[in-house]
Amino acid sequence: MELTDKLAILADAAKYDASCASSGAGRRDSRGGKGVGSTEGMGICHSYTPDGRCVSLLKILLTNFCIYDCAYCVNRASSNVRRARFTAAEVVKLTLDFYKRNYIEGLFLSSGIIRNGDYTMEQMVEVARSLREDHHFAGYIHLKTIPEASPELLEKAGRYADRLSINVELPTAEGLARLAPEKRADGIRDAMGELRWRIDENTEARRAAKATPRRRPPRFAPAGQSTQMIVGAGPAASRHDAMGLGELDIDYVLFGALEGALSAEGRDMASWWAQTMEVPAVLSDPQADGETADPAGCEFLAVGESVWKAPQGAAIALSEIAQRLETL
Ligand code: SF4
Hints:
Blueprint: H1 3-14, E1 44-48, E2 54-61, H2 88-100, E3 106-110, H3 117-134, E4 140-144, H4 151-160, E5 163-165, H5 173-179, H6 185-210, E6 225-226, E7 232-233, H7 239-246, E8 252-255, H8 264-276, E9 281-285, E10 300-303, H9 305-309, H10 314-327
Parallel strand pairs: 2-3, 3-4, 4-5, 5-6, 7-8, 8-9, 9-10
Antiparallel strand pairs: 1-2
The structure holds iron/sulfur cluster.
The site of iron/sulfur cluster has 9 residues, from loops.
């Protein structure tokens, strides 16, 4: 498979990771030969450094092959998606090429689990090691870490990366056991605690060394750690699905399609849910505007593509929708 094909698959597969989310924009491109630019490509997102600078990152997966089967993930083992895998050397080359062309200022690297946690983490650490040691790459590196990986690999990851992250995934251990049965809530908590401890210890050791002639220890993940968690779920395809989601201790259940017109079935289910259950119902209406928006009996309305496409701009489109909701 060509490197560009791998890049298309593995940049697209990484777009669902919200640890370094970009702002939304409607889909536009200039392929007809008119104009310049495109909002359709995946692969470059923005993140903030500890001193507040916004940096653009090459955001990719090392691979979207995965031996786990987390129900909420497009890359799960049972998912029927095109798969690809970069070698560590290919990720290094892409990062350096993009960096030298001034497309990016850093790398965000995550991965599906191949073989086991340690093997996957070794490959990711090798990317960061090679960038730092072989190429003296001084740009920003964010590595998504695998909770089951050994403490030695986490230590190495923190030595090369600016930021590390581990996904909490779901608010409760029961939710995790149900939707991601191969993951362990206590393992995730332990790995996050281990990172927290190492970051604090390193900060303290560097501070102490500053006041003495001793050499300061190398930095460990100086931009800290981050995480992401699923706080709501949907779209629920049936009442039965919605009941299952509602048991996961989530903050809302989403009804209706995420793209296209508001579905009558989604509206029916949302209002049934809102009348029956305590967990709030969110009705998705991707085409809602200041004249049509109507949550009809449920607690929240999720707006979508129409806001980003509005000729008057997203901020005005949103305030028009808010004004309409106040009058209903
Ligand atoms: S381990 Fe990660 S990549 Fe694999 S299915 Fe779960 S969330 Fe997706």
